[in-house]
Amino acid sequence: MRFWPRSMAGQTMLLLVVGLTLTHAVSMLFYSHDRDTLLAASGGREFAHRAAVVVEMIAAVPAGQRPQLVDAAQATDLDVSIAPENPLVREYEEDWRGRMIRELMVDELGSESASRMTVQVFDPAEESGLGLASLNPTAVANVRVSVGLADGSFVSVAGALPAHGMSASASTLASTLVMAAAVLALSFVAVRRMTWPLRKFAEAANRLGRDVAAPPLDERGPDEVRRAVSAFNLMQARLRRFVEDRTQMLAAISHDLRTPITLLRLRAELIDDEEERVKTLATLDEMQEMIRSTLAFAREDAEGEAMQRVDLGALVQSLCDDLAEAGQPVECADPPSLVVPCRPQALRRAVTNLVENAVRYGNRAAVSIEARPDAVLIHVDDEGPGIPEDRIDQVFRPFYRLEGSRGRETGGVGLGLSIVASVAYAHGGEIALANRKEGLRATLRLPR
């Protein structure tokens, strides 16, 4: 079982509650000890005074009248007796209460009585061994004092001290629980308020991977979080400028190349050699296709299509139907109706690229949709030879192709899967390729 929470809020709340509860418990123990010490001192002083009064009264009367005083004293909560010998065979003065009562008795009776005084403080559990009866069943400690008189006899006075101990009371437990509940509630509010900017920070970092043009974060929260958010906003602005500059440069270069290619095409028409003219025009067509694809790739990055809630099953089904009507060997399993937020035009283009690749390299395309609680998977299967495992990750790089030619007959310029990856990342998803026995499977994952 896991007791340590994983979140910062949970860890902070646990530390606060445990730390303050332990501190409160220790404070209550010290308080209880001080309270019990004061009660014991007060009770011991009262017992010493009453015992000293009884001893002085008995010592002041003749021996014949002492039994009457003993009987009168027995009517109180004191146990008084007279014996020819000291009934206390050992002292318990190592107990602080015994030492305290001896000092109080000496103060009451005088210092000359110290040599003839014996004090015992014991717990009720020890009474059976001492041959004494409990004077107060609720007392935690009993006390007996024996004082020698001038005639050699001993007066023994026994009583009960107030309850002493640091056992937790119901009020102590109740106050601890109330304190823990109050700390838990207040720390929950405070910690959530402090960690809210961090949650927004994490969401913004995740959103940055999908949309570099996302609005900046509000600089709120503690100073440390404000500085982190400010640095994040500055980083996002720099990344946005870098991507925009790269996209504009790529689009400008591709656009500017169209003019010289057009001039070269006009001059190629004037070539007398038929075979050479055909080769030159074919090369120019390839260059034109590269420029068109590059411009499309740049527009894909530059244009920020708005997110819409779209029936993904209907979108994929209509796309497959259009390609099948155009004579392409495309099949689509009956897709479920799944309404998901997406950029429909960008997503349509990505799925189209996957299907066209499957037809071009794998003879046919079989499209299916798998619904999961957290994501939707679009599978595109073909019957081709697949891709070497060590080159699967490389095919998503722009202008990368498995074979060296750039002919349109063998697959264009190598931007199709790059566009698919760009669209997947913009949706917070991913694209993966996997070899099967029957061919290659491309899986486009979109979060729900």
Walk me through what this model shows.
The protein is of the alpha+beta class and 448 residues long. The protein is built from 10 helices and 11 strands. The strands form 3 sheets. A 5-stranded mixed sheet has the order 6-8-9-11-10. The protein has a 4-stranded antiparallel sheet with strand order 1-4-3-2. A two-stranded antiparallel sheet has the order 5-7. The longest helix has 53 residues, at 8-60.
In short:
This protein is of the alpha+beta class. The protein has ten helices and eleven strands. The strands form three sheets. It has a five-stranded mixed beta sheet.
Reconstruct the topology from this structure.
Layout: H1 8-60, H2 66-74, E1 79-83, H3 96-109, E2 117-122, H4 127-130, E3 141-148, E4 154-161, H5 170-208, H6 223-268, H7 274-302, E5 308-311, H8 312-325, E6 330-332, E7 339-342, H9 344-362, E8 365-371, E9 375-381, H10 416-426, E10 430-435, E11 440-447
Parallel strand pairs: 6-8
Antiparallel strand pairs: 1-4, 2-3, 3-4, 5-7, 8-9, 9-11, 10-11
Helix pairs in contact: 1-2, 1-3, 1-5, 5-6, 6-7, 8-9, 9-10
